[in-house]
Specification:
With about 400 residues, this protein is of the alpha/beta class. The chain has 12 helices and 17 strands. It has 2 domains: about 5-55 and about 300-400, Aspartate Aminotransferase, domain 1 (Alpha-Beta Complex); about 55-300, Type I PLP-dependent aspartate aminotransferase-like (Major domain) (Aspartate Aminotransferase, domain 2, 3-Layer(aba) Sandwich), CATH 3.40.640. Helices cover about 35% and strands about 15% of the residues. The strands form 4 sheets. A 7-stranded mixed sheet has the order 4-12-11-10-7-5-6, sandwiched between helices. A 4-stranded mixed sheet has the order 1-2-3-15. The chain binds pyridoxal-5'-phosphate. Pyridoxal-5'-phosphate binds near residues 140, 191, 195, 196 and 226. Pfam families: Aminotran_3.
C-alpha cells in the first residue's frame, strides 16, 4: 500500500499512544502491517483472540449467522443466545446468564446484580446493603462504575466525582478485607489474577478464605474473569482451577474470540434480575452469540486446554531462562498469561524494540512485560517468540552498559 493513501490519525481521538504502523491483516499467530511486515502477535487483541487472528471456525460461524439473523431485538428470543446461555451455565455450573458486549459492561451488570441482591426484602442481615469491596491495583473496565471498582493508581482522580461504594482491600490480605466489611457491604469483587496490574495472582488459599468470609458474613463473591476466563489460564474458568465457587462470574475478551461479547453468570440464589432491571440494544444478539458458541466448542475441549497448559509451561520455562540469563526478575502467571519483571522501567522501550524485531508484546507496567499468545499456540511459535525476546533483551543489556 502506498503511504500516501493512509488516512491521518488526527481525526481519531487520541485515547492511547499507538505506534505509527497500520495493521491490515491477521492470520493465526501473525499480524501484518500495511508495509507488508509480519509480526508474531503475543497481544492477540489484549488476550481476546483465543484462537488467533481470523480463525476459520469463527469466520464461518459469523458468515452463516450473518445470512440468517443479525439483531431481532433484545426483546425477542433468538436461538444462539439461548444456546449460549445454556452452554455457559452447563460449563460453569452457574444458573443464569446475561450478555453484554464488553468486559466493563458485564462488570457493571454484576455490580447492579449485587446491589439488587442486597436490596431483597427477604434478607435477614444487611437489608439494603450496596457497597462492594474491591482491590488495590484491580482492573474492571472503563465505564464510571467499573473505574470506581478498579484500583488503578490515579483513577480516583479522573472524571470526578467518583461513584461511591468501592473500598479497596489488598490482594492476598484477608485482614484488609475483613476490616472493610460494614453493615452496607454486599459483595467482594476481584480478578483471580490481576491482569492489568502485571499478572498478579490471588493465591488459592486467599480465594478460599474469601469464599469462607463471604459465606460467614452473607456477602456475594464476584469473580471478574474477563481476562482469566475462557481457557486463558489452562482451565475453562480460573475458579475451577482453585476450587472456589463464586456467586457471580463475568466473562469477556476470549468469549468472542475476537468479536465483542461479554457475559454475567450468576448462581441461582444471586440471579435476581427481573424484567426492566438490565438490558442493552445488542444484548444477546445472535451474531455474537453464534460466534461465541463456535469459539466455546473449541476451547472447552480437554485436549485444547491441555495444550494451553503445556505451551504455558514451555513459555514459563523459557521466560525463567531468559530472566536468569539477563539478571531480570520474577516470572508470574499461568496458562498463556505471563509477566516478566524487568527490575527497571524498561518495558516501553523493550516493547518498541520487540515490535521492530517482529514480536508484539505489552508493557503491563513500566517495569513489567506481559505475554498473551493465542491459546492454540504451537510449540514452534513459543520458541520463536522466546528467541526474538532473547535477542531483544540481550541487545538492550548491551545498550545499557
Ligand atoms: C479483568 C478485566 N476486567 C474488565 C476489563 C474490561 O474489559 P473491556 O475492555 O472489554 O471493557 C478488562 C480489560 O482489560 C480486564 O482485564
Amino acid at each position: 500500500m502506498h503511504p500516501q493513501v493512509h488516512p491521518s490519525p488526527r481525526h481519531l481521538m487520541p485515547i492511547t499512544e499507538r505506534p505509527a504502523d497500520i495493521f491490515v491483516r491477521g492470520e493465526g499467530a501473525w499480524l501484518w502491517d500495511a508495509a507488508g511486515r509480519r509480526y508474531l502477535d503475543w497481544l492477540q487483541g489484549w488476550a481476546v483472540n483465543a484462537l488467533g487472528h481470523c480463525p476459520p471456525v469463527l469466520a464461518q460461524a459469523l458468515q452463516a449467522q450473518a445470512g440468517l439473523l443479525l439483531t431481532p431485538s433484545p426483546a425477542l428470543h433468538n436461538l444462539p443466545s439461548l444456546q449460549l446461555a445454556q452452554r455457559l451455565c452447563a460449563l460453569s455450573g452457574l444458573h443464569q446468564a446475561w450478555f453484554g458486549s464488553t468486559g466493563a459492561e458485564a462488570n457493571e451488570g454484576a455490580i447492579k446484580l449485587a446491589r439488587k441482591w442486597g436490596r431483597r426484602a427477604s434478607r435477614a442481615r444487611r437489608a439494603g446493603a450496596w457497597k462492594i469491596i474491591s482491590f488495590e491495583n484491580g482492573f474492571h473496565g472503563r465505564n464510571l462504575a467499573t473505574m470506581a471498582a478498579s484500583g488503578k493508581p490515579g483513577w480516583d482522580q479522573l472524571f470526578p466525582p467518583q461513584m461511591p461504594g468501592f473500598a479497596k482491600a489488598r490482594l492476598n490480605d484477608l485482614a484488609s478485607v475483613e476490616a472493610l466489611v460494614d453493615a452496607d457491604t454486599v459483595a467482594v469483587m476481584l480478578e483471580p489474577v490481576q491482569g492489568e496490574a502485571g499478572v498478579r495472582p490471588a493465591t488459592p488459599a486467599f480465594l478460599q478464605q474469601l469464599r469462607a468470609l463471604c459465606d460467614e458474613r452473607d456477602l456475594l463473591l464476584i469473580f471478574d474473569e474477563v481476562q482469566t476466563g475462557c481457557g486463558r489460564l489452562g482451565e475453562l474458568f480460573a475458579f475451577q482451577q482453585v476450587g472456589v465457587r463464586p456467586d457471580i462470574v463475568t466473562l469477556g475478551k476470549g468469549l468472542g474470540g475476537g468479536v465483542p461479547i461479554s457475559a454475567v453468570l450468576a448462581a441461582e440464589h444471586a440471579a435476581v434480575f427481573e424484567p426492566g432491571d438490565q438490558g442493552g440494544t445488542y444484548s444477546g444478539n445472535p451474531l455474537m452469540a453464534a460466534a461465541s458458541l463456535a469459539v466455546l466448542e473449541v476451547i472447552a475441549q480437554p485436549a485444547f486446554l491441555a495444550n494451553v497448559r503445556e505451551r504455558g509451561a514451555q513459555l514459563q520455562q523459557g521466560l525463567q531462562a531468559l530472566s536468569a540469563r539477563s539478571g531480570l526478575g520474577e516470572v508470574r502467571g499461568a496458562g498463556l498469561l505471563w509477566a516478566l519483571e524487568l527490575g527497571q522501567d524498561r518495558a516501553p522501550a523493550l516493547v518498541q524494540a520487540a515490535r521492530e524485531a517482529g514480536l508484539l508484546v505489552n508493557a503491563a507496567r513500566p517495569h513489567c512485560l506481559r505475554f498473551m499468545p493465542r491459546l492454540n499456540s504451537t510449540a514452534q511459535e513459543i520458541d520463536q517468540g522466546l528467541a526474538i525476546l532473547g535477542q531483544v533483551l540481550a541487545a538492550d543489556a548491551v545498550a545499557l552498559h
